[in-house]
Design a protein that fits this description.
Length: 301
């Protein structure tokens, strides 16, 4: 009978443990690491500033879960997602000229054909399909018939969506895609912050490249460009609501075709990114660990 008491005590302890509230038995939960999405706006030559931001993020060890872009931002986003380094993208951007991506070809739908952009992208990108990208990539174009954004991601060819996203209305000829006519993504979504969330980002960093507000327009292209600037300023609220942080490089003094200002644009992106690093590090800081729930009679190790 002396041996029965320890056995009985053991089973009594098991029964007591089984009746503990479920909450007392749950293991301590660990907060999931934030997933940072980078959303890059348009700006043609001013898009070189995006590369300065990527360079600083890499230097500071800021992880990027996914990247999205429209227009010039789509080129930079795709290049980075494919595995091109910031240095390689910067070299391509600073040496790029209008003739590398467009050919003057007067037509009913525009003045410039963008077939040359395909060859430029093939030299810059390491992969040409969404499913082959190093990190999730999203590109936005605009349906000329409905005015709605057309989101490309997940799988399929990357080159055509980028060309469509860069097809500035009135200048570049629209891109035909599945019975649709597609134009510049910035016409419907100036900064694709929402798409970054759809790709899994918990925190979205949007990069906005303000347009040059210089003297009054002097030709038809400048008139059209200024009109689009006015319209886009009226729709900023929508993409800002989807953003946790907005980085605004100081590029207002650079014209849309100012490729010769490449080094200045890179520095503008770097300066703006460095000013934002402290805010981003707050997201990445580990949360204070909650004390473990101890069972009755247990002792911490």
């Amino acid at each position: 009978m002396r041996g029965a008491r320890p056995v009985g005590s053991f089973w009594a302890a098991v029964r007591q443990l089984a009746h503990l509230p479920a909450a007392r038995l749950k293991p301590a939960t660990v907060a999931a690491a934030p997933k940072i999405g980078l959303a890059l706006g348009g700006g043609f030559a001013r898009g070189i500033a995006h590369v300065g931001i990527l360079r600083v993020f890499e230097q500071q060890g800021i992880p990027i879960h996914c990247i999205t872009g429209v227009s010039a931002g789509a080129i930079v986003a795709a290049a980075y997602a494919s595995g091109a380094t910031p240095a390689e993208i910067a070299q391509a951007g600073c040496s790029m000229r209008f003739g590398d991506v467009g050919r003057w070809s007067l037509g009913r739908m525009g003045f410039v054909a963008s077939e040359r952009m395909k060859k430029f992208l093939e030299r810059l990108l390491k992969n040409y399909r969404f499913e082959e990208m190093r990190i999730p990539l999203g590109v936005v174009a605009t349906d000329l018939g409905t005015g709605e954004p057309v989101r490309f991601h997940g799988s399929g060819d990357v080159l055509l969506p980028i060309r469509a996203s860069c097809a500035y209305p009135g200048l570049f000829q629209p891109i035909h895609y599945r019975e649709r006519l597609l134009v510049d993504g910035a016409m419907s979504v100036e900064v694709p912050a929402r798409l970054a969330r759809e790709l899994g980002a918990t925190h979205v960093v949007s990069v906005h490249l303000p347009n040059c507000r210089g003297p009054l327009p002097q030709n038809v292209f400048q008139v059209v460009n200024r009109c689009f600037q006015i319209l886009q300023r009226r729709t900023e609220e929508s993409w800002r609501r989807e953003s946790d942080l907005v980085i605004v490089p100081d590029v207002k003094g650079v014209e849309w075709d100012g490729f010769g200002c490449g080094p200045d644009l890179l520095r503008a992106g770097e300066t703006a990114a460095l000013a934002a690093i402290a805010s981003i590090r707050v997201w990445l800081a580990p949360s204070p660990q909650k004390p473990s729930t101890l069972m009755p009679g247990s002792v911490p190790a």
